[in-house]
Design brief:
Number of helices: 16
CATH class of the largest domain: Alpha Beta
Strand content: 15-25%
Number of domains: 2
Distance between the termini: 33 Å
Shape: globular
CATH architecture of the largest domain: Alpha-Beta Barrel
Bound molecules: guanine, fe (iii) ion
Radius of gyration: 22 Å
Number of strands: 17
Helix content: 25-40%
Largest sheet: 9 strands, parallel
Structural class: alpha/beta
């Protein structure tokens, strides 16, 4: 039994299907030296007492005190790391103006490595403190500071998937915020991929390079084609934005006479390791293409309320077999917390189902069958994210990484309203999802290593 690096005892919640959450009451979780869950032992198991007796006095035995629970670490599929510096501002204007007036000038500043380091260190620490153990990032078009973001993830112990953003079209991007040519963008992307793959060799939890055309409207055909080839050559993850708003969706139709999804596929950018942000305007043919290629949707419910002109029909897309995970989309979304996005995903789906215009009769107001439960939103933030990235994360099961957040429902400054000693664990779970704040996140572990402890 000494082969275990750590043993944890406590009650955990983990999705067992997109709609059902499994409660593992007082289980033992045995973690190996690689940070993987090697064994899960229930109190009924014959070895349960024996292992406790044997290990309880050892340093690597961790028993949760009363009122604390394990959740899988959250997986944030889409964050614009530089935009952390403008979180919460300028959300009253449309996407196109927001990009030009605020976002591109801010992103241009990430040529300054000192500024980049300050923002990125703060962001990665903040996301860990909010329970996000794996994050897929857009950095900027600068190769050096993008690599620095991967190094910061490696150092702080977060599983980071990082993209050097490609935006090369001189017609679409200001001179101060773009790649100088398709050729230089492809060269920079290739050397970025090689450098991050090298960094990954010495990083326990994994850091991965992501081929990242910002979105079709900011890229030339030449670069899109080259990026598809690079992703295939190095078997990398791929990320972009797809059919986000009326404007973004319409721009691609004007240029190619087809939807974003099919245009991206023509360039070799849809694969099992592709994650596309937003996707609000996918039709059923687009969704079938996503399902066929294994492409996942990153759902940004807060950001969508500002920029996407619509609510993503999560329930419908899931019924068509599309993989979906959750994200914050900083700073289109203002919050670094996937807890906030879980709540918004549920609330937006309810508004889609019921409709929003009280002047219409009830039967014409909404889209029947659109609501998702908080359990389903939890799935998006955990197991759904793992499936989207094709990584063994997001579930507390054997052969998955020990990526967890320990929730303290009794934190003095943020006590959850649990008054009944016999409150069912299912309702404690729902209170955790709706009411957890960073103050309740006691510890965060990634790949078997403690990477955050609440101060
Ligand atoms: N489309 C292209 N770039 C962006 C971005 O930075 N944020 C959002 N929300 N949409 C985009
Ligand atoms: Fe985005």
């Amino acid at each position: 039994m000494n082969q275990y690096a750590n043993i944890f005892q406590g009650t955990a919640f983990s999705s067992q299907s997109p709609k059902e959450v499994r409660v593992l009451q007082d289980h033992l979780f045995c973690i190996n030296a690689q940070g993987m869950i090697e064994k899960i032992i229930s109190p009924e198991h014959k070895d349960y007492q024996k292992i406790i007796q044997e290990f309880q006095d050892q340093e690597n035995f961790n028993r949760l005190p009363e009122g604390q629970y394990f959740l899988p670490g959250f997986i944030d599929l889409h964050v614009h790391a530089p935009q952390w510096a403008q979180a919460g501002i300028a959300l009253d204007i449309p996407l196109y103006e927001w990009l030009g007036h605020y976002t591109f000038p801010l992103e241009a500043k990430f040529s300054d490595l000192d500024f980049a380091q300050t923002v990125y260190e703060d962001l990665v620490g903040t996301l860990l403190a909010n329970g996000s153990t794996t994050v897929q990032y857009f950095a900027t078009f600068h190769k050096k500071s993008s690599y620095m973001l991967a190094e910061i993830c490696a150092k702080k112990g977060q599983r980071g998937l990082v993209g050097k953003v490609v935006m090369d079209d001189p017609e679409a991007n200001p001179e101060f915020c773009r790649d100088q040519s398709a050729e230089s963008a492809l060269q920079d992307t290739e050397s970025f991929i090689l450098a991050v793959q090298d960094l990954n060799r010495s990083t326990k939890q994994g850091v991965y390079p992501v081929v990242t055309p910002r979105f079709i409207p900011s890229c030339t055909d030449k670069v899109l084609k080259g990026l598809g080839k690079l992703a295939a050559k190095y078997d990398t993850h791929i990320q972009s934005h797809c059919s986000e708003s009326d404007w973004a969706h319409g721009t691609v139709i004007d240029r190619f006479g087809k939807h974003d999804a099919f245009a991206l596929n023509d360039f070799g950018l849809l694969s099992d390791k592709s994650v596309m942000a937003h996707c609000n305007f996918l039709d059923d043919d687009d969704a079938a293409l996503f399902a066929r290629t294994g492409t996942a949707i990153a759902h940004s419910p807060i950001s969508n309320a500002y920029f996407a002109n619509s609510v993503l029909p999560v329930a419908h897309l899931k019924s068509l077999g599309v993989e979906i995970g959750l994200d914050t989309d900083l700073s289109g979304g203002f919050s670094p917390s996937l807890y906030d996005n879980i709540k918004q995903a549920v609330m937006s789906s309810r508004m889609l189902e019921d409709g929003v215009n009280p002047a219409l009769p009830a039967e014409e107001r909404g889209v029947t069958g659109s609501r998702i439960t908080v359990n389903e939103a939890f799935y998006l933030a955990t197991a759904g994210g793992g499936e989207s990235l094709s990584l063994p994360i997001g579930r507390l099961e054997t052969d998955y990484a020990w990526d967890v957040q320990i929730i303290d429902t009794k934190t003095p400054a943020a006590k959850l309203p649990i008054f009944d000693k016999n409150e069912p664990l299912e309702s404690i779970f729902q209170k955790i999802l709706y009411l957890t704040r960073p103050e309740n996140i006691q510890e965060v572990w990634v790949q078997g290593e403690k990477v955050h402890k609440r101060k």
